[in-house]
Amino acid sequence: MKNRYKISEMAKIFNISRQTLIFYHKKNILVPYIVDEINGYRYYSNEQIWELFFLLTLKKAGFSLEEIKEFTELKNSDKSIEFLENKVDEIDLKIDELQKSKEKIQKKIKNMKEFSEEIGKKISFGKIEKINCYFLKMKNQIDEAEMAMNYEKLHQIAKKNGIEEVKYITITDISNIEKLDRDSIIPVKKIGIIVPNKILLEKSEELYIGEHFLMNFSDSYTSLVESYKNLKKYVINENFIPKNYVIEIAEEFSILTEKGVGGLFKVLIPIESKN
User: Fold this and answer.
1) CB pairs under 8 A, 24+ apart, for 49-56?
2) 111 Cα distance to chain centroid
3) Mean pLDDT throughout 230-251?
4) At 217, phi and psi to the nearest 5?
5) Is the same domain home to 90 and 190?
6) Do 136 and 197 belong together in one domain?
7) One domain, residues 86 and 158
8) Are 209 and 260 found together in one domain?
């Protein structure tokens, strides 16, 4: 039986690079048994074959190099057990987080499929008495940076108050939609979240909607102006007087289209009365 192995031989045994072993040496994770002072060659002992096997096993188990180094320096059974138990707890926490992420993604897939099935439907008429909401008013109604910051604030508020399935609600001004061109930003009056009945959120308010026409939007944001022009024109052609705003209700996700970033959301345009 050989009593020492060159670095190239160790690398071949475990199908890793020489650079990996050199890195482990520099980090004092696996120091060669002998380093020739004349030529700098590294040699490893039989025992170090099993040390490296163990280190690579830890790496495959998700241990960082810092954790591997810390663990190998313990040299104490009780401390080693405690270290590994703490690692198991961390893994359990990650599994729980991954499971929650999986459930969110599955929910998004379900919503997108349901929404896609509704896209082909025409504009519909409906009536909603009121929705409980929490709003943030826009200081600059066409400032996209402020919009993004408000969405992030609302996300944190929802998380803090235990609202798991967040639905955003946006009040958008379409009083001058006819004058806007394709690249214009439609003014946003306020951005909010829908507050479920079981949640008590301070400063929430009831938004009365009443009779309205509803359209499902699933496209790039660049087509939003034209879509709202068409919606407003449709309502007028149906002999109704549209109010000067629309209500956008969206899940917390966006989509990528051939034209750029877009969204999936319901658009409600409340009506005053019939002409």
Assistant:
1) 49/5, 49/10, 49/13, 52/10, 52/14, 52/21, 53/14, 55/24, 55/29, 55/30, 56/14, 56/16
2) 15
3) 91
4) -105, 130
5) no
6) yes
7) no
8) yes
Instruction: Quote the domain boundaries for residue 106.
Output: 77-119
Which CATH number covers residue 65?
1.10.1660.10
Same domain, 159 and 270: yes
What are the structure tokens assigned to 181, written together? 């061109």
Q: Could you tell me if 97 and 61 lie in one domain?
A: no
Asked if 256 and 210 sit in the same domain, the reply is yes
In whole angstroms, give the CA distance from residue 126 to residue 210: 8
Residues 135 and 224 in one domain: yes
User: 73-96: per-residue pLDDT in tens?
Assistant: 887 788 888 888 988 898 899 899
Give CA angle at 237 (235, 242), nearest 5°.
Answer: 30
Instruction: Give 246-274 pLDDT, tens digit per residue.
Output: 999 987 656 666 666 667 788 999 998 76
Two tokens, residue 102: 């999986």
Number of folded domains that form the chain: 3
